[in-house]
């Protein structure tokens, strides 16, 4: 391996992996051994090794979600040793490296658990509930056409920065997975805050928060009890300030919007 | 007016009710604590009985009392509804879950702590409120109902003192989370003030609960036999 650390000793690990054939099947934990895992591998590369082994043995590989493997797409979503995205703070599963574990460790790997996120297969869950919440209002309607001039809409730098903080949410669902109530409020609040702070978001500001909260409740997510497990496990550090901002947006929209339903 | 019922049956709407009633109940705790400090007066209970007579008969207090009852009812009902909904949001539990690594236990145990406080409240209300309001307490030297003697004899029983102190510990943890949580739910989060709210919440919880717990402990350990 080019550029690898010569002192990194390969590890042997015991994996306890949730296996489930499909959405309606009963699942269970199955134990596997993986050998010669480099501490420089990412967690997903370690699972790739496991799946190679399984394929060689003629067994079904473990299904898990992944895409960019650079920590920016929000696809990977594993509950590792009782924590969303594993023990390391501020990382996605793909950016968690095996050097965080020790030779001989037993690692439990489970899918996100929430009724709004049904398990498709093994470790892969269906997060389309998030898509439906976005469809309910997490957008800005604009006339398409030529690209607008860069400085046409002046936005103060601190406001742009604050909106960008919220916009860094990658919708991985760790907030839901970590929350005792399986609440999606950190995710929803990040999306609402981002658009509520920017001038482009003002047109749909009230209907957005009303419709997105209604959809969130309909999907069966729990309600926030301000424990903060979500923010503690969020790989990109979305703050609880967003939930407070969302609550303000919701209360003021309910009090002042023209929506009588 | 369906928008009103829709608002208050939504997740955030219910949370707002819990927050408003919770902070209102905090104000009640302050009044209750300050009034009950009369128990520490060494006058055979005269001052405390004057105070309890006032609280039981003054028309303003008797009216506000209904608001207090509503505060409790809504706080308990909405919290219970949310707790049931939150539990239903994850019907398959994790095999391995380590929440202690991302949050304090009392923040995750608000429903349990609230239930302990409710059970205490029922015993407390039956023993003192019910018997003062509807019971037949003997009159004291000023011809006020002698609630003081009832308090005295109750707090001379070890199991009663234990129940009270345990309930105050539960209340303290409930308040440490609940105080700051109420502000957060109402959207009152600010980089300048939220750290202050946290500190005030801690101080409030500890001072109020230590004050209440001091009463049974004082009677049990330090109060000599009644004069009359």
Task: Characterize the structure shown.
The complex is a heterodimer of chains A (261) and B (228). Chain A is of the alpha+beta class. Chain A has eight helices and seven strands, in the order ββαβββββααααααα. Chain A folds into two domains: 11-120, Roll (Ubiquitin-like (UB roll)), CATH 3.10.20; 128-140 and 153-256, Alpha-helical ferredoxin (Fumarate Reductase Iron-sulfur Protein, Chain B, domain 2, Orthogonal Bundle). A five-stranded mixed sheet of chain A has the order 2-1-5-3-4. Chain A has a two-stranded antiparallel sheet with strand order 6-7. The longest helix of chain A is centred in the C-terminal third of the chain and has 16 residues, at 241-256. The termini of chain A are far apart. Chain B has 228 residues and is mainly alpha-helical. At the A-B interface, helix 6, helix 7 and helix 8 of A face helix 1, helix 2, helix 4 and helix 8 of B. Chain B: Keywords: Membrane, Transmembrane, Transmembrane helix. Chain B: One of its GO terms (cellular component) is membrane. Chain B: This is Succinate dehydrogenase. Chain B: It comes from Hymenobacter crusticola.
Key terms:
heterodimer, A: 261 residues, alpha+beta, Ubiquitin-like (UB roll), Fumarate Reductase Iron-sulfur Protein, Chain B, domain 2, five-stranded mixed sheet, 33% helix, B: 228 residues, mainly alpha, 9 helices, globular
- Rg of chain B over CA atoms, rounded to whole Å, is 20 Å
Order of neighbouring strands in the sheet with most strands of chain A: 2-1-5-3-4
What is the share of helical residues of chain A? 25-40%
Low-confidence stretches of chain B: none
Q: Quote the distance from N terminus to C terminus of chain A.
A: 62 Å
- Give Rg of chain A in angstroms: 21 Å
In the CATH classification, which architecture of the largest domain in chain A applies?
Orthogonal Bundle
Strand content of chain A: 5-15%
Largest sheet of chain B: none
Q: Which class best fits the helix and strand makeup of chain B? A: mainly alpha
Q: Strand tally of chain B, please?
A: 0
Oligomeric status:
heterodimer
- Count up the helices of chain A: 8
Quick one: CATH class of the largest domain in chain A?
Mainly Alpha
